[in-house]
Each structure stands twice: as structure tokens, then as C-alpha cells.
């Protein structure tokens, strides 16, 4: 991969199996992401847009190395950290113990772990709650802790998935200001948000994912304008037309049963006789 590129997706797809509607009924397989092709330059700040269920969080967990695509590939060139609501924190452990755990999992030195603790005490501003189990935190406090830990890890690629939507306005602004500093230092940032104003204000480019497919990727204002038009169009549809639109998108993602799976079913049926 070219050394100026931070992320490269080639024909990348993620497939999930849905449960059947009835108990025991075979579910369908469907593409949460389908045939994604894109490259993110090092130092680029990309806003990821898409209506609910379009596949944004699925991209974020692949980029963070939590799972792999089922088809194609996504290469990530650099250390990465995912900041998302309720991700990566052990609820039973205290804030401080979570830092120890993360440090141990990443194989960090003691002095680096101590540095992260000091950074979190300063940035998260949750005081002595850092010594309480995370399960006792409010969602805003969890967001403060998660954001601060990942920030202090100083990753080359930061993936922020709706993490600012739960905290209070003051903390969200503090995070945005910090991310602006990181942007100016040349970090690559993937910013997933439903807040179009924040995306326009903060990002260089936008990636619009709809129904698991890459619909547009390019200039921030152009993509945001067309996405906003689509959201208006969708919201103004009647209930019946909304359902049609959802069904149309869903149909494109379903993997039709192949002959192979017919024989699989037959074989399974014979085996149970
Ligand atoms: N573990 C899973 N098993 C089955 N389906 C899943 C799983 N995780 C996600 N999905 C489905 O994959 C699709 C994409 O989900 P994803 O969470 O990536 O969407 P999103 O764009 O982040 O949505 P939102 O804006 O609502 O957060 C959705 O249809 C979702 O139901």
C-alpha cells in the first residue's frame, strides 16, 4: 500500500446472518457492507454519513480491527483507536483498572500506562469516580472515560463513532477542540456522526454509506448537501413509500439462497431422518 494512504478498502463486504422470524426458521444472510472500494489519505479527516442501519458502525469495528470483512479486504496503515459509546470498557472494573487492562492488552510499558492515567485524570474531569466501577457511571461519564483513554493512547488513526452524542455540550466541544488539534498535527480521523453541522465544520471529506454500499465519497460540502437532500426526501415520504424505500434497500443486501444452500438444506434434512 502507498505510504501516503492510511486506509484502503478493496471489494470489502461484511455479511451477517439474520434470525428467522419464527423459532427454528432459517434466517437470511445479508450484506451489512457490500463491495466497498475507497482509499483514505494519511492526515485526512473523513466524516461518515448514512441513515440508521446503513453500516457505519460496522465499518468502524472493521477499521478498529475488532472483526474482518467476509469478502475483500480493508488494510489499515497505522495504530488505531475506536471511540464509541459503550465500547471497550469493562463495566466491573474501575476507570483506573480499565486503563491498566487496556495498557496490558496493548503491551504498554508501566511508564506509558502512568502517563495515560495522568492524561485521563486531566482530560476526563470525573474526579474520584475514576476509582469506582464503570457500571456505576452515567453514559456521559463513560463517554468521558472512553474518549480520554483513547485520546491518551495517541493513535495514528482515530475512529470516533457517535461518541460525542451522549456527553454534555461542554465536553463535546472540548473533544472537538482536541480533535482539531490532532487534525492540525496530521492525524487521520474517521468521524461518524448524525450531526451534519459538526461533520461539515470538522471534516475535509465525507463518505456516505447507504444500505451497506458506498454512495458517495468526496468534497465535504457537496456530499453533505446531497445527503441532506436525501434525508429530507426520505422524511417527506408517506409511511407506505418509506416502507417501499426500506424494502428496496434491504432487497439489494440479501444473499439469495444458492443451489449449494438448497443441497445443504436437503443434506441436513436427510441427516435428521
Ligand atoms: N451482529 C450483528 N448481527 C446481525 N446484524 C447486524 C449485526 N450488527 C449489525 N447488524 C446489522 O447491520 C446493519 C448495519 O448496522 P450498523 O450498526 O453498522 O449501522 P449504522 O449505520 O451504524 O446505524 P446507526 O446510525 O443506527 O447507528 C444493520 O442492518 C444492523 O441491524
TrEMBL record:
PROSITE patterns: ABC_TRANSPORTER_1, ABC_TRANSPORTER_2
Matches recorded under PANTHER family: TEICHOIC ACIDS EXPORT ATP-BINDING PROTEIN TAGH
A matching Pfam family: ABC_tran
This protein's UniProt keywords: ATP-binding, Nucleotide-binding, Transport
Name of the molecule in the record: ABC-type polysaccharide polyol phosphate transport system, ATPase component
InterPro entries per record: AAA+_ATPase, ABC_transporter-like_ATP-bd, ABC_transporter-like_CS, ABC_transpr_TagH-like, Bact_Polysacc_Export_ATP-bd, P-loop_NTPase
Entry's Gene Ontology cellular component terms: membrane
The ABC transporter domain, residue ranges: 18-236
Gene Ontology MF term list: ABC-type transporter activity; ATP binding; ATP hydrolysis activity
Keyword Nucleotidyltransferase: no
Keyword Thylakoid in annotation: no
Tree of life domain: Bacteria
Source organism of this protein record: Kandleria vitulina DSM 20405
Family: Belongs to the ABC transporter superfamily.
Amino acid at each position: 500500500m502507498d505510504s501516503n494512504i492510511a486506509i484502503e478498502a478493496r471489494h470489502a463486504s461484511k455479511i451477517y446472518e439474520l434470525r428467522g422470524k419464527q423459532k427454528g426458521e432459517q434466517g437470511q444472510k445479508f450484506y451489512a457492507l457490500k463491495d466497498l472500494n475507497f482509499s483514505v489519505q494519511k492526515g485526512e479527516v473523513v466524516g461518515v454519513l448514512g441513515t440508521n442501519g446503513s453500516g457505519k458502525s460496522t465499518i468502524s469495528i472493521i477499521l478498529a480491527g475488532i472483526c474482518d470483512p467476509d469478502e475483500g479486504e480493508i488494510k489499515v496503515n497505522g495504530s488505531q483507536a475506536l471511540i464509541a459509546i459503550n465500547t471497550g470498557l469493562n463495566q466491573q472494573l474501575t476507570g483506573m483498572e480499565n486503563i491498566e487492562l487496556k495498557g496490558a492488552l496493548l503491551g504498554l510499558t508501566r511508564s506509558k500506562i502512568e502517563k495515560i492515567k495522568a492524561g485521563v485524570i486531566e482530560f476526563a474531569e470525573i474526579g474520584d469516580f475514576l476509582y469506582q466501577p464503570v457500571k456505576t457511571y452515567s453514559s456521559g461519564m463513560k463517554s468521558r472515560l472512553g474518549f480520554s483513554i483513547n485520546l491518551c493512547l495517541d493513535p495514528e488513526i482515530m475512529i470516533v463513532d457517535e461518541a460525542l452524542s451522549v456527553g454534555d455540550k461542554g465536553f463535546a466541544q472540548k473533544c472537538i477542540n482536541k480533535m482539531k488539534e490532532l487534525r492540525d498535527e496530521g492525524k487521520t480521523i474517521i468521524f461518524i456522526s448524525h450531526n451534519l453541522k459538526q461533520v461539515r465544520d470538522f471534516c475535509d471529506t465525507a463518505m456516505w454509506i447507504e444500505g451497506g454500499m458506498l454512495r458517495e465519497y468526496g468534497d465535504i460540502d457537496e456530499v453533505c448537501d446531497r445527503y441532506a437532500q436525501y434525508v429530507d426526501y426520505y422524511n417527506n415520504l408517506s409511511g407506505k413509500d418509506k416502507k417501499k424505500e426500506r424494502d428496496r434497500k434491504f432487497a439489494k443486501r440479501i444473499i439469495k439462497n444458492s443451489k449449494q444452500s438448497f443441497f445443504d438444506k436437503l443434506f441436513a434434512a436427510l441427516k435428521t431422518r
